[in-house]
Amino acid sequence: MSPFFVMSLLFGLVFGQTASLCAPSEYTIHVEKRECAYCLAINTTICAGFCMTRDSNGKKLLLKSALSQNVCTYKEMLYRTALIPGCPHHTIPYYSYPVAVSCKCGKCNTDYSDCVRERVRTNYCTKPQKLCNL
User: Fold this and answer.
1) Which among 19, 21, 73, 126 is most buried, taking Cβ atoms within 10 Å?
2) Taking the chain (134 residues) in consecutive chunks of 10 residues, what is each chunk's mean pLDDT?
3) Rounded to 5 degrees, what are φ and ψ at 80?
């Protein structure tokens, strides 16, 4: 283990969330529509990282709502819209996506986050790719 990791872990145990490593992180989304000729690779930011949680030994004595753990989630976000190239006129060629401005450790909100532990890896293109840097 690196000294930085050990120091971060010790600091996190002492100061809780102040040492969490939850922050906006660069991420590439691949977007394509069946009707359009291209796949669009969009560079954006998402919330990612480590959040301190406390796991109770008395799980059977607590309500399920008391057992939820903190995750790295959006504190502030905005939406941007990109134009998918090569779409016919009858197709809406726009795609809106979230951009993390700031992040926090908190409860996972399924309205705008994927709270599942493992997800299917489908973030790739099947069509020719165009890059979008907004």
Assistant:
1) 73
2) 57 52 91 90 91 66 63 91 92 92 86 63 70 60
3) -120, 160
Residue with tokens 């120091």: 7
Residue type, 95: Y
By C-alpha distance, which of 9, 34, 38 is closest to 21? 9
Written as one letter, the residue type at 64 is K
pTM of the full structure: 0.64
Amino acid at 44: T
pLDDT computed for residue 17 by the predictor: 43
Q: How far apart are CA 96 and CA 81, in angstroms?
A: 4
Domain-wise residue ranges, the chain: 19-126
Contact 47, 73 (CB under 8 A): yes
Structure-token pair, residue 3: 């000294």
**Strand bridging mode 94-106 / 23-32:** unpaired
What are the distances in angstroms from CA 28 to CA 32, 34, 58, 78?
Answer: 13, 20, 41, 16
3-class secondary structure, 19: helix
